[in-house]
Write a structure and sequence with these properties.
Blueprint lengths: L4 H6 L1 H10 L4 E2 H5 L6 H13 L3 E6 L2 E6 L5 H26 L3
Antiparallel strand pairs: 1-3, 2-3
Protein name: Metalloregulator ArsR/SmtB family transcription factor
Organism: Pedobacter albus
Pfam family, one: HTH_5
Length: 102
């Protein structure tokens, strides 16, 4: 199955995993300890994030550490930017309309 970054961030558990590893790498057990679900379920979420390119898994001895790859989120930022101008224009139009004197 082909996965993309939008599929990865669609799930609240995966978004929380991203938040956890955003500023520090964590091993798989440390990540799983933050959730009330099985370790295999967390591993599946991590697998999806890895397949989407949002994280790297680094082996350090017997431990596996997850590290964020923020550059992949640029795809989401670019998609949002396309609509930002549209909504800014709509809000500006609304403001002009509301500020018109009767």
């Amino acid at each position: 199955m082909r996965r993309d970054v939008f599929q990865a961030i669609a799930d609240p558990t995966r978004r929380e995993i991203i938040n956890l590893i955003a500023f520090q790498s964590l091993n798989l057990n440390a990540i799983a300890d933050h959730f009330d679900m099985s370790r295999p379920a967390i591993s599946q979420h991590i697998k999806i994030l890895n397949e989407c390119g949002l994280l790297n898994i680094r082996q350090d001895g017997r431990e596996r550490f997850c590290e964020m790859r923020f550059e992949k989120l640029q795809e989401v930022a670019n998609w949002i930017a396309r609509y930002q101008t549209f909504w800014n224009n709509k809000l500006d139009d609304l403001e002009r309309h509301l500020n018109q004197k009767p």
